[in-house]
Write the structure tokens for this entry.
Amino acid sequence: MNSLNYLIVLISSLQVTTKSERYLLIYMIFTLVIITTIVIVFFVVFQKRKNKLLLDKIKQQQVFEEEISNTQIEIQEQTLKNIGQELHDNIGQLLSVANMQLSIMTTAVDETIKEQFSETRDVVKDSLREVRALSKSLNSDVIANKGFHESIQNEIDRLNRLKILNATLTDKGDKALFENQKDSIILFRIFQEFISNTVKYASAKNFSVTIEYMDDKLILHAKDNGKGFDIEQIEKGAGLMNMQNRANLINATYELESEIGKGTELEVIYPYRKPKTLVL
């Protein structure tokens, strides 16, 4: 307003000044306008450049954090793959040999203990099967080849087979909508971590899973009827942090709810992303 008033005064003064003075005033006004315009343009350009630098910095930080998360996930997946391979090749091989030896010995032992030998052989056989199933659930290549839904079903079957929990799986929609193998592995690991926590801490009897394949997203909902916990007071360990970090990595919405005496629920809403090359 002060500048405007100043210009009005200058213009008004033109009526009472000499011709030379009017030219001088016009020149001064013109110069003032030019300087003001330059200052405004400079300020606008400066602000745009400053905002661009801030945005670039934020994007670089996001890319850096994503790369760190990707690297951590890749290391974890490679570690799990190595453990799974060791279980399959070494422990599995030892159990397989033990099973063969027990089968041979069963035919040579006395009838009074043959039944016990047969039972022991069956236990070893069951152990071998579970070791192989566990090794497959740890190997990201196997998960990618089997697919997300079948990998979830295998975990449910394993829980029921071992009589750890009474587990059920319900699915809705078209499974073919979820094609991103890399994201499917990360989503499966979130589910696997939730199962692990349920088995270790929940003292639950029932466990239910619902997977809904929608046109633009997948909704994974898992629930146990265990003892629950107070989310506000529980210390966030590596397991809970891993679930949250993995969800963030695939742009999924992650929500964990629990109440003492009423069990724990997990919901992950995953918006489909364009599949990328799987590198794990």
